[in-house]
From TrEMBL:
Its main location: membrane. The chain crosses the membrane at residues 117-138, 150-171, 177-195, 234-254, 260-281, 358-377, 397-421, 433-450, 486-510, 522-544, 550-572. GO terms for cellular component: membrane. It comes from Sphagnurus paluster. It comes from the Eukaryota. One of its GO terms (molecular function) is transmembrane transporter activity. This is Uncharacterized protein.
Length: 607
C-alpha cells in the first residue's frame, strides 16, 4: 500500500485472515521484512493505527477539493439548465424574485427530460473514458504531476466556454448555447478525466512510511500500519471530493437568484487555484517516474500468452485462459537460454505482475451496476423533487445531501466503526466492504421506487396526456406540485452516500494497492472506466427515462444491485485470503528491462 517495496509484509496488517502467510520462528520472534524491527508476534497482537499523513498529501487533497467543487458546481445544475424553459421575465435562467418563495424552478434551454438525461449521460460517459488518456500519458510519458498540471489548464478553458454559453446573449439563441454547452462538456471532460486518473494514486504515493512500533502518550504500544494509513488516506481523500461537491449548494442558489452564467463563473474562478496549489509543492511531491515502454510491454505479454491459446471457439479460449500455465508462453524462462524472442524485454516477475493485476482488476467489472444506482441521484431524483412542494428550495439543491452525508459519515467510519471492527478481530475486508456497498445502493433504489410510486398517486400529471409533460408540469398554466415536502427525497441520497463509503472508496484503495508502481494511473483509469460503462448502459435506457416509468426503473436497479453484488461476493470472496499477495504486485525491483536506470527501479523520486 506504500510505494516502497515492502507491501507484501505491510498489507498483512490489515487482514486478520492472513497471519499464516507470515509464520517464521515458532515463538513469533521473526522480524517482518521491510519493517522497523516489528516481530510477527507484535504484528499479530498489537493494535494497528494509521500513521500521520505528509503535508504533500494534504496539498493533493486541496487540488482534488477545488477540482471537484468546479465539477459538481456545474454538473449538478445541468438538469434544470438543460431541461426547463427560461422562467417568465428572465433572460439568464434565474427565477424572478417574486416567484422564489414558491415552486417555480430555474431553467434555460427547455430541452425536456430525455434530452437533458442524454446530455448528462454523455457527460458522465466522456469524463470516465478520458482517464485512460491521462493514465497512459502519465505512466508512459509525463508522470502524474506534469499530466495533472497540463490538463488543469485544459479543464479551465472548458469552464470559460461554459460560462460564455450561459450568458443572456447566448441564451437568446438556444441552439447556439446548446452547442457551446456540448463543446465545454467535451473539453472539461478531457481535462477532468485526465486529472481523475492521476490524483488518486498521487495522494497515496506521498506516504512512504514503514511498518513500525510507536508508544502513545498513554503508554500503549501500537503498530503504525501503512495498510491502515492508506485506507484512512482514501477515506479523507473521498471526504475532500464530497466537501468540494458541496459547492453545488451555492450553485443552485446562484442559478436561481442570479442566473446560470454567474453560477458557472464561481466554480471557474475557484478552479484557477488548482495550478497554484500544484506549484506550491512542486519540489516536495513524491512521484513515480514515467517509463515509456511498460504499457506496450503489458500488451505484448498478453499477446504472447494468448497467442497459443486462441481459438475460434470462445469457450475453448476461456478454458485456456483459466489454465494455471496460461502465462508460461510469455515468460522468458519458457524458451530456454538463447532462444528468447527479441521482443521479450521483460523478466518472469513482470509476467507474474501482469497476470495478478489483470486477475485483481476483474473485481471492477461488476461496478457498472453500482454506478447505475448512483447515476439516479445525478438527475432523475432531481426530476422527482421538481414535482414536490419546494417552499422556495431549489429542487437541485437536495442532491447535495449526498456529499454532506458522506462528509459526516467518513470520520465516524474512520475513527469509530473501522477501528472498533479491527479491535474485535473482525476482518471487514475490501471484498466485504464492496458487497455491503451493493446492498445499500439497492436499498436506496427501493426507497426511491416506493417514493415515486406514492408521488404518482398524488399527481394529476401522471396518466393520459400529462405523461408527456416534464416533471414540473403545469395545470391551467400554473406549476403543479404534490403536497409531499421536497426533503422527503433525501433518503436515497444519504443511503447512496453510505454505499459509496463501502464500495467507491474501497475501489480507489483496491485500484492503488493492486497495480504495479508504474501502471497505477492506468489501473485507476480502468476502475473509473466502469462509470463510463454505466453511462453507456444508461444511453440504452433513454427511452424509459421518463418520470412515468421511474418506479420500475428504480426497482429494477435495486434488484440488479442485490443480484450482481451477491454474485460479486461469491466470485471474489477467496481474494480476501490473498490480500497480501495481491498488494505485493509490482512492488519489488525487476530485472531484465532494457535501458532501465538505477533511478527508475527505485520507483519514486522528488519532482
Amino acid at each position: 500500500m506504500s510505494v516502497k517495496g515492502n507491501e507484501k509484509d505491510i498489507a498483512r496488517a490489515s487482514s486478520v485472515d492472513e497471519k499464516h502467510h507470515y509464520q517464521g520462528e515458532p515463538d513469533g520472534s521473526s522480524i517482518i521484512a521491510g519493517s522497523e524491527d516489528v516481530t510477527e508476534h507484535e504484528l499479530a497482537t498489537l493494535r494497528h493505527v494509521a500513521d500521520r499523513l505528509p503535508y504533500t498529501a494534504w496539498l493533493v487533497v486541496i487540488v482534488e477539493f477545488a477540482e471537484r467543487w468546479t465539477y459538481y458546481g456545474t454538473t449538478n445544475i445541468y438538469n434544470n439548465y438543460i431541461q426547463f424553459d427560461l422562467p417568465k421575465g428572465s433572460n439568464n435562467g434565474s427565477v424572478p424574485k417574486a416567484d422564489r418563495g414558491g415552486n417555480v424552478v430555474a431553467g434555460a434551454l427547455g430541452q425536456r427530460q430525455q434530452k437533458s438525461f442524454a446530455l448528462r449521460t454523455f457527460n458522465s460517459f466522456f469524463v470516465y473514458i478520458t482517464p485512460f488518456i491521462g493514465g497512459i500519458l502519465a505512466d508512459t510519458m509525463w508522470g502524474r504531476y506534469k499530466t495533472i498540471m497540463i490538463f488543469s489548464i485544459v479543464c479551465l478553458a472548458g469552464h470559460i466556454i461554459l460560462v460564455g454559453s450561459a450568458t443572456p446573449a447566448s441564451l437568446e439563441h438556444p441552439q447556439t448555447a446548446l452547442g457551446l454547452l456540448v463543446l465545454s462538456i467535451t473539453i472539461m471532460g478531457l481535462g477532468a478525466g485526465a486529472i481523475k486518473a492521476n490524483v488518486s494514486p498521487m495522494i497515496a504515493e506521498q506516504y512512504t512510511g514503514k511498518l513500525r512500533k510507536e508508544t502513545l502518550p498513554s503508554g500503549e504500544v501500537v503498530i503504525k500500519s501503512p495498510a491502515v494509513t492508506i485506507q484512512s488516506m482514501y477515506l479523507w481523500f473521498y471526504a475532500a471530493i464530497n466537501l468540494g461537491s458541496c459547492g453545488a449548494i451555492s450553485a443552485s442558489f446562484l442559478a436561481r437568484d442570479n442566473g446560470y452564467w454567474v453560477a458557472f463563473l464561481v466554480p471557474t474562478c475557484i478552479f484557477v487555484a488548482v495550478p497554484f496549489v500544484l506549484l506550491a509543492g512542486r519540489k516536495h511531491y513524491v512521484v513515480t517516474p514515467p517509463r515509456g515502454s511498460i504499457l506496450l510491454e503489458t500488451f505484448r505479454v498478453i499477446g504472447f500468452a494468448l497467442g497459443p491459446r486462441w481459438s475460434i471457439n470462445p469457450f475453448e479460449t476461456i478454458r485456456a485462459i483459466k489454465r494455471p500455465d496460461f502465462w508460461d508462453p510469455a515468460r522468458p524462462s519458457y524458451y530456454g537460454e538463447g532462444r528468447v524472442p527479441a521482443k521479450m524485454t521483460w523478466d518472469d516477475e513482470f509476467v507474474g505482475e501482469v497476470g495478478r493485476t489483470l486477475n485483481a482488476c476483474t473485481v471492477f467489472l461488476f461496478f457498472p451496476v453500482f454506478w447505475l444506482c448512483y447515476s439516479q441521484i445525478d438527475g432523475n431524483l432531481g426530476t422527482v423533487a421538481a414535482g414536490m412542494t419546494l417552499h422556495g428550495t431549489p429542487n437541485d439543491l437536495i442532491q447535495n445531501l449526498n456529499p454532506i452525508s458522506i462528509i459526516i459519515m467518513i470520520p465516524i467510519f474512520d475513527r469509530v466503526i473501522y477501528p472498533f471492527l479491527r479491535s474485535r478481530g473482525i476482518n471487514f475486508s475490501p471484498i466485504k466492504r464492496i458487497y455491503a456497498g451493493f446492498l445499500v445502493a439497492g436499498l436506496a433504489m427501493v426507497y426511491a421506487s416506493v417514493l415515486e410510486s406514492y408521488q404518482n398517486k398524488l399527481s394529476p400529471c401522471r396518466g393520459g396526456e400529462f405523461d408527456k409533460q416534464p416533471a414540473a408540469c403545469k395545470i391551467n398554466d400554473k406549476h403543479f406540485a404534490t403536497p409531499l415536502n421536497v426533503w422527503i427525497v433525501s433518503g436515497p441520497y444519504i443511503l447512496v452516500g453510505m454505499a459509496e463509503i463501502f464500495a467507491s472508496i474501497t475501489s480507489l484503495e483496491y485500484a492503488f494497492t493492486k497495480a504495479p508502481k508504474r501502471m497505477k494511473s492506468v489501473v485507476m483509469a480502468f476502475a473509473q472506466f466502469q462509470n463510463a460503462v454505466a453511462s453507456a448502459l444508461n444511453f440504452a435506457l433513454v427511452a424509459v427515462n421518463v418520470e412515468a416509468k421511474f418506479v420500475w426503473l428504480f426497482a429494477s436497479f435495486a434488484i440488479a444491485s442485490w443480484i450482481v453484488g451477491t454474485i460479486f461476493f461469491f466470485t471474489f470472496r477467496t481474494l480476501d485470503k490473498r490480500e497480501s499477495e495481491l498488494n505485493a504486485i509490482g512492488q519489488g525491483e525487476r530485472q531484465g528491462f532494457q535501458n532501465e536506470t538505477a533511478e527508475d527501479t527505485t520507483g519514486v523520486h522528488k519532482v
